[in-house]
Design brief:
This protein has 118 residues and is mainly β. The chain has one domain: Roll (SH3 type barrels). Strands 4-3-2-1-5 form a five-stranded antiparallel β-sheet, with no helix packed on it.
């Protein structure tokens, strides 16, 4: 049971952010704002959503991509973060799990996720 003041504050935070619908298995392209000294720039981060956690303003999601030299890179992003400038859903994945942590042990074609066809 939340305090009504905290609930109203969270509602105000949520209403001005436009978040697309996505779930585990989807491929996202994020625009992440990076601050270097006094300069800021937007860097792209593209990968597969392997998990979503939490609800409300505390919601987060984990994205995994394969970086240079076939090294897996995972980042956890707060869903309503100010550093996320854009979220684009590139592909919808067809998966049967809510958490795809098993992808950490797979490489190559085994780590591919089938696309959800409409």
């Amino acid at each position: 049971m939340k305090n009504r003041y905290i609930a109203s504050f969270e509602a105000a935070q949520l209403e001005n952010k436009e978040i697309p619908q996505f779930r585990a298995g989807d491929t996202l392209k994020l625009g992440v704002e990076i601050k270097e000294g006094s300069k800021t720039r937007v860097q792209a981060f593209e990968g597969i959503v392997i998990a979503r956690h939490g609800e409300g303003t505390g919601a987060t999601f984990t994205i995994r991509k394969i970086g240079a030299n076939n090294v897996g890179v995972e980042r956890i992003f707060p869903l309503y973060s100010d550093s996320l400038k854009e979220i684009n859903v590139l592909r919808k994945g067809r998966v049967r799990r809510a958490k795809l942590h098993y992808l950490r042990g797979l490489t190559g074609k085994k780590a591919k996720i089938k696309e959800l066809r409409k």
